[in-house]
Design brief:
heterodimer; A: 2 helices; B: mainly alpha; Rna Polymerase Sigma Factor, Chain: A; Arc Repressor Mutant, subunit A; 69% helix
């Protein structure tokens, strides 16, 4: 038990997401549109 | 004013009003903190990337759908979303545990998909064929009780009602059916193992 709980994971507080992940999020944000029609909301992802 | 110095609340407001660059600033400002928070829970870079991505997809959807209430707590709100997604990840993982094979040990050497291989399947069908033949050699009354009990999964009460005999008689017939089956197996030297 002691061995399991004392096992240390590599701690690194300076990790950053990959640039591809950030680009995907930003592209998704640009593509995601919400259209409102008669109290209805439609989500669309434009290419 | 340089947008980099705007507060989170102002950037969120600009983003909702269609300024996409505000999102870039928000992500740049908080990415390290959110990413490290997720990583500190899952200790896996790939999973962290996935959860980080899902977190911001949820943020984008909520903001664009106008469901976000600005209370000056943007970062705690994003952290809460990330936290909930981490919990979802562990719940899913609990249902479907992940196992990493190592050089020395491959999990697929000790588990199978439950289906028999071609040889085992042949042996099993041969055993079933032998048993059916043996059952057919039993006297009628014993064969009837055995089929009702084993193949139709009927209780001895139901068997006694269906065959118009007492429960004890049905039990006796079942007992003799099994004794006779064992005798037949021994006489014919039949091997009934897979």
């Amino acid at each position: 038990m002691e061995k399991i709980y004392s096992k240390k994971h590599p701690s690194n507080n300076h990790l950053n997401p990959k640039i591809e992940t950030i680009n995907l999020i930003l592209s998704y944000s640009k593509a995601f549109k919400v259209s409102v029609y008669n109290d209805l909301m439609f989500e669309t992802i434009l290419n | 004013m340089n947008p980099k110095y705007l507060s989170d609340a102002a950037l969120v407001s600009n983003y909702i009003n269609g300024e996409e660059t505000s999102l870039t600033i928000i992500i740049n400002r908080h990415q390290q903190r959110i990413y490290n928070f997720i990583y500190s829970k899952v200790y896996d870079r790939d999973v962290t990337e996935d959860i980080f991505q899902d977190t911001f997809i949820k943020v984008i959807k909520t903001l664009k759908l106008g469901k976000y209430n600005e209370e000056g707590k943007f970062l705690p709100w994003v952290m809460r979303i990330a936290h909930n997604l981490v919990i979802d990840f562990f719940r899913k993982n609990k249902r479907m545990p992940k196992f990493n094979n190592s050089k020395d040990f491959d999990i697929f050497t000790v588990i199978s998909d439950g289906s028999l291989n071609a040889e085992a399947e042949l042996i099993r069908s041969q055993i079933h064929y032998d048993i059916r033949n043996l059952v057919e050699q039993l006297p009628d009354d014993q064969r009837t009780v055995l089929k009702m009990r084993i193949y139709n999964d009927m209780s001895f009460k139901e068997i006694s009602e269906n065959t118009s005999v007492s429960i004890n008689t049905a039990l006796g017939r079942m007992r003799y059916a099994l004794i006779n089956l064992r005798k037949l197996i021994k006489e014919h030297n039949i091997v009934l193992t897979n």
